[in-house]
Design a protein that fits this description.
Strand content of chain D: under 5%
Number of strands of chain D: 0
Shape of chain D: elongated
Radius of gyration of chain D: 19 Å
Low-confidence stretches of chain D: 1-17
Strand order of the largest sheet of chain C: 1-5
Order of helices and strands of chain D: HHHHHHH
Oligomer: heterotetramer
Mean pLDDT of chain D: 88
Chains: A mainly alpha, B alpha+beta, C mainly alpha, D mainly alpha
CATH class of the largest domain in chain C: Mainly Alpha
Distance between the termini of chain C: 20 Å
Helix content of chain D: over 70%
Structural class of chain C: mainly alpha
Bound molecules: heme-A, dinuclear copper ion, copper (II) ion
CATH architecture of the largest domain in chain C: Up-down Bundle
CATH superfamily of the largest domain in chain C: Cytochrome c oxidase-like, subunit I domain
Strand content of chain C: under 5%
Number of strands of chain C: 6
Largest sheet of chain C: 2 strands, antiparallel
């Protein structure tokens, strides 16, 4: 595959990246705010959701996974999924999520 | 780079290969050999740790599962091996033409996937039931705390009025339980991981430091059931054995009473009394004998934690009520007496066991050797120069450099610890 | 060997001199003698070196096994002390798994994978060399412990807290950690390399479903490695921090939970056993069709069952912990998950049998070993199924019944597969056939020896003999003629028959090297692309990159179906095909040049590791070498100057000598 | 660091090495490596999660974490991902000057983060949480230390890349080299995104 062809699908402008970064910054600010403001029962779920959103945004946009070949997504997300599966299962056998 | 040698053709290569016929005969012989081997399975009689001889309901649950899965495995094995043999006899190269290049038949494939899946589903269902049956603990009648350490087991019977246990009993090596009683072991360890296993009564369960694991035992009949530590626990793992002794309920009550008997110091002037002094000087820093008092009449509390890494040494209060010592590695009784107890009929067994070790029956040779130089009898610390890693604390019993005199006295004294 | 070959121009390869203008250090250009091997980046040479190293460690591990069996032949054995025995089985297990089985699979993978997919080399030739050297460094570090105060003595799964500094006070465990860590990095690099190779370097037309099964299985194995090695890396790091820097990860007095180690080890360890067996499955999936003269039955099923074994393999690790106190729910789940693995494995067994069905089966030694695998592995697999029933396993775990299980799958399965591969591919690699008569002896001695050694272990275990005991006692051996004492003796005798079997193989190798017949180009009437070149293959593998139209491309170039009778008709000999390729050779073939850096980097890593035991200065030295080598690596010229060629080149097109890695 | 060297599949394909997927070898290798790293950090994070409450006599997480401080350094690392991606686009535009500028900025931000971590560690040690104080301490330092080492290696890679671009030692596809370094860098960032939430924000 030639260089130019590869670049086309990366299709984001610098401005786009800056926008993403601003959103990330905003979410981070929100995350930090949980430290000061009481979110009640929403505390854990909201933190987890925000974490996942940030993660996915960096991977999809900054790391181009959204625009790149599916093969890359497969390689990376397989590792991620396996990691989640084995470690959550292992922690579950320690009764980690119950205690 | 090599070029092709036109002289060497394929036919040449083929006749370097062994003729087919002789290998067929050999295959048959080998198969016969293998099946003969398989047939002879289980030929040892009375192997003390045989896993196919359940002597209690928990082991029975496992045995029932074995009776499902082993035949299935056996039948599948025989089918596959027979099929393989048939195929490679039948489809030998007899000069036939190259076969059609067929790539497979999906319906065969799918059948061969589904059949094993179904078989395993059945096995799985029974397995599920077995697992949860074995995990049942609600109907427990007797609780015993079992603690593993390098390289022996300690048993601690907490106070349980309904079992006649009014003060804690601490013992080692041989676990004593009443028959027909649902016993719950609460296992843990003081150093590394060990595993408690009495095959006739149940499968094994690891004793992990920092955790308490539960294991149920129940024996149908009085007798001695052998077992062995089955998690590698260092140097003397091979020598970390144990026995479960099942007594009738009445005999068990007697045993409990015996273990709770108060200490009587040996009569003054006897060899045993001298032995008591030696014991106090040499041994009681590690070994507890309940009720023993020093010259001032103060009770002596041993402090094994200052001497042994695991922080424990066997409680010797009723040493002579046991049958084996040092992690059940050695017999405490000599051969004749041992046979008398171990081979006793189930009705007589209790009385014989409760009689304990008399002077005539004592296996003096091993006990003396033990006192003379324990690490020579049982590997305890591979390299004493490495003791600094454990802050000078021993793993196991050290060589105390006793004289033969001391040993005479000590043996006499130990014999009083009934 | 030539760095740059231009077969179009002449048979004499172009000679390259060191590049002068670029990089920190000149590239090595040796084409002869030991330097050719030390600095090579040729996947075939690297493959052979992997094989030699693995064979060496097989003998080391085998001698350790023999000592174990000598000690256990009779009750209260005195050949080894308790301490020595514990080191012996620990190192036996570790050596066999990490220094024999994995490297031997890597040998096959390195050599044949590029050939099977019609490539000139792997994707990252220098990284490939680095993997080899790191493995050797790891093996040396691991075994150096024998001479530096005693080897590791905690068993190959090194359960905490027994592996802690108090309970295992010699440095053996430290070397064990370092050796495995280094060998692990080697495998990780190797697996990334091979995955990229398979994904990217296939010959035109070779879709994934036209790939040889061996390549497929190696691909699955590399995925298993990529995703399981980091887990043991974590475990080893934690243990190292505890032993060397005072952390308390497994120190129960600080509140640690020893089961953490078990989880981390087995999350790696179970996929690892499939890492060991799948290459062997791949090998016999080439051998069985070749010698049955039929394609593999149900190719897609074999491929997908391999992949699903790999995937499910990540979800069953706790079956090694059925007695560890996980609680009934976890145990039940893992028990059933484990049973599920029997299904795809069964698919493989049945497909192999059906491959032979209706075939024209030719019993070469390679084929015998392959059939041996099918039968012996089945026995081991079925005892595995009896373990998967968790309550039954609590009677079996840590007894010789387990030892029987895993030697049947490892020896009867994996080792037989590898030996099948030796006999099958020897002519390809060395241009000479291993002697078939000796091969037959080799096979039968191994079959008999293996069954005598490991067969009785089923009985020993089920009758209650625990594993890892430096002595056993007659008191627990039972009565009767066939008591445990008898079977222990049989097992020990068997192990020596086995050793003779292995010895016959070594004799065969020497004999073949001295007196062996040159092999015809296609001695087995084979089916896959690695045979579409000379034996041994040229440095650049293929004169012309083949274009693939079929699964079993090579076979289909030789045979054509007679449409009338539906029988296969030979239309060409392998020799003709190769000659045709030679005539149509491509003009500008470039190959990566040799490099110093993989070796230097590996040595640096070794020194860095020793720093953990011998202190910070050593570590700094090692680190400096690593850094230096990394820069050297990166700056190594990837382009040769025109004047580097002899005769100097004028056109710019063939200048490149080093793809990256 | 091998990945920073240069070679492209497209170049190779001129000579008959064709690439079956059309993707770059180096990029495939990098993504595989990152997939593998997920399991590495997963293991360390799980260890931390299991042990975070086991403090022995040492301080408890809530006693020593300085959330405002860590928030700032997390923000710095997050923004370095932006500058990194700007370096990548610059490299793709073949704008060496800007590439180097953004790479340098990224390295500086990364170094700031590492500096912050060093500062944090020294404060914690002063407050009584040593590496061997408790399981919490051991697993905290192991996790964040591993991450810190990854960032440091990243900084070295960034600066080295600037160096070889300046000296014009990259003969292959410059943009790809920058992109590979970028992938690694972003990965280090996303690991921190997880650590920041799981370790710092969720109380033990
Ligand atoms: C090559 C390596 C290899 C392979 C392939 C396997 C394959 C399997 N293993 Fe084994 N195993 C080991 C190597 C291997 N194992 C090692 C080294 C250990 C011990 C580690 C240690 O403790 O030191 C071990 C230990 C081990 C244990 C733990 C035992 C214990 O310590 O208590 C268990 C428990 O479930 C187990 C199960 C299985 C199963 C179910 C399979 C299955 O994959 C087998 C599947 C195959 C078949 C079943 C045969 C063919 C199938 C058919 C013909 C279809 C029809 C079948 C049925 C309907 C049943 N293995
Ligand atoms: C690939 C893996 C592999 C292989 C091939 C083998 C091969 C052999 N293994 Fe095993 N083994 C393991 C993996 C393997 N093993 C593992 C993982 C363990 C568990 C360790 C642990 O518990 O931690 C184990 C444990 C183990 C035990 C249990 C020890 C114990 O629990 O106390 C035993 C006991 O008999 C044993 C025996 C053997 C024998 C006789 C061979 C034979 O097949 C060896 C045959 C090879 C040779 C014999 C070499 C040939 C030598 C020559 C040709 C030179 C001849 C020279 C002289 C005679 C001097 N092994
Ligand atoms: Cu205790 Cu083994
Ligand atoms: Cu397993």
């Amino acid at each position: 595959m030639s260089e130019t062809a590869e670049h086309h699908d990366h299709g984001m402008s610098d401005a786009g990246y800056i926008k993403i970064a601003l959103i990330l910054a905003a979410i981070t600010a929100l995350e930090v705010s949980t430290y000061y403001v009481d979110f009640g029962p929403l505390f854990m779920p909201s933190l987890m959701i925000m974490m996942v959103i940030k993660f996915v945004m960096v991977v999809s946009y900054f790391m181009h996974l959204k625009f790149d070949n599916k093969m890359f997504s497969f390689l990376f997300y397989t590792g991620l999924a396996l990691a989640l599966f084995v470690y959550i299962t292992a922690l579950a056998t320690f009764k980690f999520f119950i205690a | 780079m090599s070029h092709i040698d036109p002289v060497l053709t394929k036919e040449k290569a083929i006749d370097t290969v062994t003729p087919v016929k002789s290998s067929r005969r050999r295959i048959v012989t080998a198969l016969a050999g293998v099946s003969a081997t398989v047939f002879l399975t289980g030929c040892a009689t009375n192997a003390p740790q045989d896993t196919f001889v359940p002597k209690g309901p928990n082991a029975k649950i496992i045995d029932d599962l074995n009776m499902i899965v082993f035949p299935i495995a056996g039948v599948v094995g025989v089918i596959v091996l027979a099929l393989a043999t048939y195929i490679f006899m039948k489809f030998r190269d007899k000069g036939q033409a190259i076969p059609a290049q067929s790539h497979g038949k999906p319906y065969v494939e799918i059948t061969l996937t589904i059949v094993p899946a179904l078989i395993l589903t059945v096995v799985g269902v029974f397995t599920f039931r077995g697992i949860f049956d074995l995990a049942e603990t609600k109907d427990t009648e007797l609780i015993i705390n079992v603690t593993g350490q390098q390289w022996w087991w300690e048993y601690d019977y907490p106070v349980q009025a309904d079992q006649g246990i009014s003060q804690p009993i601490i013992s080692s090596g041989q676990l004593v339980i009443p028959v027909g009683t649902k016993v719950l072991l609460r296992e843990t360890s003081r150093d590394v991981i060990h595993s408690y296993w009495i095959p006739a009564l149940n499968g094994k369960k690891d004793a992990v430091p920092g955790r308490i694991h539960l294991l149920r035992l129940e024996a149908d009949e009085p007798g001695i059931y052998a077992g062995q530590c089955t998690e590698f626990c260092g140097l003397s793992h091979a020598n970390m054995r144990m026995e479960a002794v099942a007594l009738s309920k009445e005999d068990f009550a007697k045993w409990v009473a015996g273990q709770q008997k108060a200490y009587t110091a040996p009569a003054a002037g006897t060899l045993a009394a001298e032995g008591e002094t030696t014991f106090i000087n040499q041994c009681s820093r590690c070994h507890q004998v309940n009720g023993i008092k020093d010259a001032n009449g103060k009770p002596i509390i041993s402090a094994p934690d200052e001497n042994v890494y695991s922080g424990a040494a066997p409680n010797l209060s009723h040493l002579m009520s046991r049958n084996t010592f040092a992690g059940a590695m050695f017999d405490l009784v000599n051969e004749e007496c041992r046979a008398d107890v171990w081979n006793a009929k189930s009705e007589e067994f209790g009385a014989k066991y409760l009689a304990g070790v008399s002077e005539d029956c004592l296996n003096e040779k091993d006990l003396r050797a033990w006192l003379r130089n324990a690490p020579a009898m049982k590997p305890m610390y591979a390299d004493p120069s490495n003791l600094e890693k454990s802050n000078g604390l021993y793993r196991g019993m050290p060589n105390l450099g006793l004289t033969e005199d001391d040993i005479d006295k000590l043996v006499a004294y130990l014999l009083t610890l009934k | 060997m030539a760095i740059i070959e231009r077969p179009g121009s002449d048979t004499t390869p172009a000679v390259v001199t060191a590049s002068q203008s670029l990089g920190a250090v000149k590239r090595p250009v040796e084409t002869k003698g030991w330097k050719e091997w030390l600095f090579t980046v040729d996947h075939k040479k690297i493959g052979i070196m992997y094989g030699v190293v693995a064979m060496f460690f097989f003998i080391v591990g085998g001698v350790e096994a023999l000592l174990i069996r000598l000690q256990l032949a009779a009750p209260n054995g005195t050949i080894l002390s308790a301490d020595q025995y514990n080191q012996m089985f620990t190192m036996h297990g570790t050596t066999m798994v990490f220094l024999f089985a994995m490297p031997m699979a890597a040998a096959f993978a390195n050599y044949f994978l590029p050939l099977q997919i019609g490539a000139r080399d792997v994707a990252f030739p220098r990284l490939n060399a680095l993997s080899l050297w790191l493995l050797i460094v790891g093996g040396l570090v691991l075994n150096a412990s024998w001479f530096l105060g005693g080897a590791a003595d905690g068993g190959w799964f090194m359960y905490a807290p027994n592996s802690g500094p108090v309970f295992s006070p010699s440095n053996g465990v430290d070397y064990w950690i370092l050796g495995l860590q280094i060998a692990g990095v080697a495998s990780l690099i190797g697996s990334i390399n091979l995955i990229v190779t398979v994904l990217n370097m296939r010959a035109p037309g070779m879709s994934l479903m036209k790939m040889p099964v061996f390549t497929w299985m190696i691909l699955v194995v590399q995925f298993l490695l990529v995703f399981s090695l980091p887990v043991i890396t974590v475990a080893l790091v934690l243990l190292m921090f505890q032993r060397s820097y005072g952390a308390t990860f497994f120190d129960v007095s600080q509140g640690a939970d020893p089961l953490l180690w078990q989880h981390l080890f087995w999350i790696f360890g179970h996929p690892e056993v499939y890492v060991l067996i799948l290459p062997a499955f791949g090998i016999i999936s080439e051998v069985l069709p070749t010698f049955s003269r039929k394609p593999l039955f149900g190719y897609p099923f074999v491929v997908f069952s391999g992949a699903s074994i790999g995937l499910v393999g990540f979800g069953v690790w706790a079956h090694h912990m059925f007695a560890a106190g996980l609680g009934p729910v976890s145990v039940a789940v893992f028990s059933v998950a484990t049973m599920a693995i029997a299904i795809p494995t069964g698919v493989k067994i049945f497909n192999w049998l059906l491959t032979m069905w209706g075939g024209k089966v030719w019993y070469t030694t390679a084929m015998k070993f392959a059939i041996g695998l099918v039968m012996l592995f089945t026995v081991g697999g079925l005892s595995g199924v009896t373990h998967s029933v968790a309550p039954s396993d609590t009677q079996q775990t840590d007894t010789y019944y387990i030892v029987a299980h895993f030697h049947y799958v490892l020896f009867g399965g994996m080792v037989f597969g590898l030996f099948s591969g030796f006999y099958y591919w020897w002519p390809k690699v060395f241009g000479k056939m291993l002697n078939e008569k000796l091969g037959s002896w080799n096979f039968w001695l191994m079959v008999i020896g293996m069954n005598l050694t490991f067969g009785p272990m089923h009985i020993l275990g089920l009758q209650g003999q625990p594993r890892r005991m430096y002595v056993w006692t007659e008191a627990r051996a039972g009565e009767g003629m066939f008591n445990l004492a008898f079977w222990n003796l049989v097992a020990s005798i068997g192990s020596f028959i086995l050793a003779v079997g292995v010895l016959v193989f070594l004799i065969n190798v020497v004999y073949t090297a001295r007196k062996g017949k040159a092999s015809p180009l296609d001695p087995w009437d084979a089916r896959t692309l690695e045979w579409l070149t000379t034996s041994p293959p040229k440095a650049h593998n293929f004169d012309r990159i083949p274009v693939v139209h079929h699964l079993d491309e090579f076979f289909h170039r030789k045979y054509e179906e007679d449409t009338a009778t539906h029988t296969m008709k030979k239309i060409a000999e392998g020799e003709d095909l190769v000659r045709a390729e030679e005539e149509a050779a491509e003009k500008d073939i470039h190959l990566p040049g040799p490099s110093y850096w993989p070796l230097v980097l590996a040595i640096g890593v070794g020194i860095l590791g020793m720093g953990v035991v011998y202190g910070v200065p050593i570590m700094v030295l090692g680190g400096a070498i690593v850094l230096f080598a990394s820069y050297g690596w990166v700056l190594e010229p990837s382009v040769a100057e025109d004047i580097d060629f002899d005769p100097p080149s004028t056109d710019g097109s063939t200048k490149e000598i080093a793809p990256l890695g | 660091m091998a990945e920073t060297a240069t070679h492209t599949a497209d170049h190779a394909s001129d000579h008959g090495h064709h690439s079956s997927t059309g993707l770059s070898n180096n990029k495939l290798a990098m993504w595989l490596f990152l997939g593998s790293e997920c399991l590495l950090f997963g293991g360390l994070i799980s260890t931390y999660m299991l042990y975070r409450g086991r403090v022995s006599d040492g301080p408890h997480p809530s006693q020593i974490y300085d959330i405002p401080f860590t928030s700032v350094s997390s923000f710095v690392l997050l923004m370095s991902s932006l500058t990194m991606v700007l370096a990548v686009t610059a490299a793709q535009r073949k704008d060496d000057r800007r590439t180097n500028l953004w790479l340098t900025v990224t390295a500086v931000l990364g170094a700031t983060f590492v500096g912050g971590q060093v500062y944090e560690f020294t404060t914690f040690i002063r407050e009584g949480l040593g590496f061997t104080t408790s399981l919490f301490g051991s697993s905290f330092y192991s996790l964040t230390g591993f991450h810190g080492v990854h960032v440091s290696v990243g900084v070295i890679m960034l600066l080295s890349t600037v160096g070889i671009i300046k000296k014009n030692k990259i003969t292959g596809n410059k943009a790809e080299v920058v992109e590979l370094v970028g992938l690694y860098w972003h990965f280090v960032d996303i690991v921190w995104i997880i650590i920041f939430t799981l370790v710092y924000l969720i109380p033990a």
